[in-house]
């Protein structure tokens, strides 16, 4: 009886799933800069959900629900990718939106810099994970940092202006950084912040 209970829990553990994605985590100074930008934006625009500053990131690939028992293979594949990649620099750029211009679904900040290296990293991750059965998104890769979701309206006094017009034009704080790794995140719904690092993959390419 005891053996059966132990075995059942073992089976249940390995049949559990985690919702995963790979991303570039932003360093603390960049998080703080974006947090200040978001506070200024929040004073003028109303969105249903504002991203916790510790959750700011640049998505590389959304992987979706993954069996815990398969995570070892995934982590091994991602380590192999990181061993071939060199560090590169990025910087924060302008505001942007996804969805209808007047009622956007997403408010985001863009990035610039060594975009060829960022795109190559994303491509290599997709290639490595495809061998494990993960599917690449059909839409083109558009790196960005989500600041808020689901526009609800303008704060009184800003109703007659365009959304981008009322946003802070210049950021105050650190805007550029050197990317030296990427992370595997698991989503913890209902928590804030809700993204937890499973593993960090440091670049070691020459």
């Amino acid at each position: 009886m005891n053996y059966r209970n132990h075995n059942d829990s073992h089976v249940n553990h390995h049949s559990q799933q985690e919702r995963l994605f790979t991303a570039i985590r932003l360093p603390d100074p960049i998080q703080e800069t974006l947090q200040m930008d978001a506070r200024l934006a929040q004073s003028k625009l109303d969105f249903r959900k504002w991203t916790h500053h510790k959750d700011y990131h640049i998505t590389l690939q959304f992987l979706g629900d993954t069996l815990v028992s398969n995570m070892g293979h995934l982590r091994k594949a991602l380590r192999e990718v990181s061993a071939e990649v060199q560090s590169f620099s990025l910087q924060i750029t302008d505001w942007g939106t996804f969805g209808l211009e007047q009622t956007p679904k997403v408010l985001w900040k863009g990035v610039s810099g060594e975009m060829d290296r960022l795109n190559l990293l994303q491509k290599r991750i997709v290639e490595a994970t495809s061998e494990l059965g993960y599917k690449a998104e059909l839409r083109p890769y558009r790196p960005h940092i989500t600041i808020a979701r689901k526009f609800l309206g303008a704060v009184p006094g800003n109703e007659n202006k365009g959304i981008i017009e009322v946003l802070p034009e210049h950021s105050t704080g650190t805007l550029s950084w050197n990317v030296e790794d990427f992370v595997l995140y698991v989503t913890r719904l209902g928590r804030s912040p809700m993204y937890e690092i499973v593993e960090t993959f440091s670049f070691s390419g020459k």
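The chain has a mean pLDDT of 90. The beta strands are 17-25, 45-50, 57-67, 88-99, 104-113, 145-154, 176-179, 181-187, 195-202.
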